[in-house]
Write a structure and sequence with these properties.
This protein has 665 residues and is an alpha+beta fold. Helices cover 28% and strands 33% of the residues.
């Protein structure tokens, strides 16, 4: 067994590998960019080496720098995590030349499966069902249109070296095919330094289901069941689970057999994933093989009881698998949610900044948090905006989902925007509960994007009741302190008026030894808990139902977060409410004449000039953030009055890019 390994990655996956290595008694070396000098994986590792400036292309992706770190530290093996150099055959060759073990597959498998075109050809040879398409490399936009017509719309334009949803575009007509070609090429070149793209048929109503395989260097290959990864946004997985609520035993066995056949075809070694598109009739088609550990591997670990990182390390050290296919048993259910620093109410734009508060839910045998951040740390603009992977398990799917909902309620993040409201809405969605999933789920259920009305609480009065309890406890404490100072205690009344979302809720709040009894608009709520002023979480029961509600203050308002919904509630006396009705409303300034940057990022291109007339839907600018290009388009016809930012500028969120002429000139 190795005595020291280097992790050629960052963030949560580096931390996750370090934890297993530490349990196995293996010393670890972290590599980091200048931006990650204070990162959690650097703190956790036994040693750390600086490998370059902040941009990944100048640090984590520089093979020579990683190799120098290996030589300087005497690492015997390298775990690449996922992304970065994990599927880079050149890196694997460099390690082989230095006689350093690669904790991953052989060079042949990486090279063959890393090229989507070559991998499809090999899959066909192995008897694996494949998606119809054109395996040739597209030369330009015109050829993209020509091939797309031959294959038949809709089509998927994909980067040959792609992954993680980057370099992929769906086209349903000629215009989208040509534009999709240029976008895919640009994104592929930026993300993978490989601008080759091809076309394949886009399967309607598809599910994305993948098979986990594990192989040693002695000819033993097993599959570990499937993962359902159909809940995606922009081809990026958001929710994953194991097993799939859709597959039957016959389909599972057939998909597993084909995955193993493909692994044998390329002499696979280590952990890998064969991804399939599955249609509504359970017909399945090979999509790609990922020759690395997947982001969503924890759900497989939960249902199999295996540590996949440990298995990868043991295989790389030359050990045989200690079990066969007949020994693999899937027990229970697991769900994973990817927690990102992004604003779901602003088209999921990335959010960067410092984590002023970071309190993940408590980990148990059934709740796991894989993270690479900590309170006070920063979410950088240079890397993927993932904060953590939250995994919840149970004996059944309903139990696992229930635990996930509770864990999301308890996940307290401040300082950056995050997608927990969206994740909570997905968990509570009736269609998700029924298991009626497809890769189009999010587009179909949220066609106008995720809006505040999509995150409304199913019982607003419950939120009012909890706020009233908190307020009453706080007022009683303030009155007691005042009484100690002045010799007499102010009497706190039972009658209040709650203001929430423009509505008034008259209520009474009566404290007792275990909490409070709240009467709101004809409904009674027994709020029970031992919350104390200053605590950021209320954990207790409302009408005997367990709840975990996050608490913030904004002036006199109580800002409560529960089930993905946020409520800003003001508690006023009846006289205070009467006076509040007389207050004028502050009108927000009109910014409609400006094109504002929806996210912090790099302004790649300004596509128009001052004085130019534009049409609705026309491209105005391109902003790049978190390695993704975002095209900003005109919402209506108009004339550009002026340009406020030039290509190459680093933009803050809501920074002006350009200005339109107003009706009065």
């Amino acid at each position: 067994m190795f005595s020291k390994i280097l992790i050629a990655n960052r963030g949560e996956i580096a931390c996750r590998v370090i934890r297993t290595a530490r349990r196995m008694g293996i010393a670890t070396v972290a590599v980091h960019s200048a931006a990650d000098a204070a990162a959690l994986h650097v703190e956790m590792a036994d040693e750390a080496v600086l490998v370059g400036p902040a941009p990944s292309a100048e640090s984590y992706l520089v093979i020579d720098n990683i190799m120098k770190a290996i030589r300087d530290t005497g690492a015997e093996a390298v775990h690449p995590g996922y992304g970065f150099l994990s599927e880079n055959a050149t890196f694997a060759k460099a390690l082989e030349k230095e006689k350093v073990a690669f904790i991953g597959p052989g060079i042949k498998a990486i090279a063959a499966m890393g090229d989507k075109i070559e991998s499809k050809k090999l899959a066909q040879e192995a008897g694996v069902s494949t998606v119809p398409g054109h395996m040739g490399i597209l030369k330009d936009g015109k050829e993209a249109v020509k091939i797309a017509r031959e294959v038949g719309y809709p089509v998927m334009i994909k980067a040959s070296a792609g992954g993680g949803g980057k370099g992929m575009r769906v086209a349903r007509n000629d215009a989208e095919a040509e534009e999709g070609f240029h976008s895919a090429v640009s994104e592929a070149k930026s993300s993978f330094a490989d601008d080759r793209v091809f076309v394949e048929k886009y399967i309607e109503e598809p599910r994305h289901i993948e098979i986990q395989v594990l192989a040693d260097g002695h000819g033993n290959i097993v599959h570990l069941g499937e993962r359902e990864c159909s809940i995606q946004r922009r081809h990026q997985k958001v929710i994953e689970e194991a097993p799939s609520p859709f597959l039957d035993e016959a389909t599972r066995a057939a998909m597993g057999a084909q995955a193993v056949a493909l692994a044998k075809m390329v002499d696979y070694r280590s952990a890998g994933t064969v991804e399939f598109i599955v249609d509504k009739d359970r017909n399945f088609f090979f999509l790609e093989m990922n020759t690395r550990l997947q982001v969503e591997h924890p759900v497989t670990e939960y249902v199999t009881g295996l540590d996949l990182v440990e298995q990868m390390i043991r295989v790389a050290a030359g050990e045989k698998l200690s079990f066969g296919q007949a020994d693999v048993k899937l027990e229970g259910w697991a769900v994973e949610a990817r927690v990102y620093a992004e604003d779901p109410f602003r088209n999921f734009m990335p959010s960067i900044g410092r984590l002023s508060r970071y309190r993940p839910p408590e980990e148990t045998d059934d709740v796991r948090v894989d993270t690479g951040v900590y309170e006070g740390g920063e979410i950088s603009m240079y890397y993927d905006p993932m904060i953590a992977k939250l995994i919840a398990g149970g004996r059944t799917r309903d139990e696992a989902v229930g635990r996930m909902r509770g864990a999301l309620d308890a996940y307290y993040i401040r300082g950056v925007s995050h997608n927990i409201p969206f994740l909570a809405a997905l968990m509570a969605h009736p269609r998700f509960a029924e298991g009626r999933l497809s890769t189009g789920f999010i587009d179909e259920e949220y066609p106008e994007g995720f809006r505040t009305e999509d995150a409304l609480h199913d019982d607003p009065r419950l939120m009012v009741a909890v706020a009233a309890t908190l307020h009453r406890v706080t007022e009683e404490r303030a009155a007691a302190i005042s009484g100690q100072m002045h010799g007499h205690k102010r009497q706190v009344g039972d009658s209040w008026v709650a203001l929430m979302a423009g509505e008034e809720y008259p209520l009474t709040a009566v404290l007792n030894d275990h909490g409070a009894d709240i009467a709101v608009s004809g409904h009674t709520y027994a709020v029970r808990g031992d919350w104390r002023p200053g605590e950021t979480m209320f954990r207790g029961e409302v009408n005997a139902r367990p709840v975990c509600i996050q608490i913030d203050r904004d002036g006199i308002a109580w800002c409560l977060t529960h089930a993905g919904s946020q409520a800003d509630i003001k508690l006023l006396t009846e006289r205070g409410a009467e006076m509040h009705r007389m207050m004028p409303e502050k009108v927000a300034p009109d910014m409609s004449r400006y094109l504002l940057s929806p996210m912090p990022g790099l302004l790649v291109k300004v596509s128009v000039e001052a004085g130019e007339e534009v049409k609705a839907g026309q491209e105005l600018a391109v902003v790049e953030a978190m390695k993704m290009e975002n095209i900003l388009r005109a919402e209506r016809d108009g004339t550009v009055a002026g340009i406020h930012a030039q290509a190459g500028a680093s933009l803050a969120v809501d920074e002006k890019i350009l200005e339109f002429e107003t009706a009065d000139g």
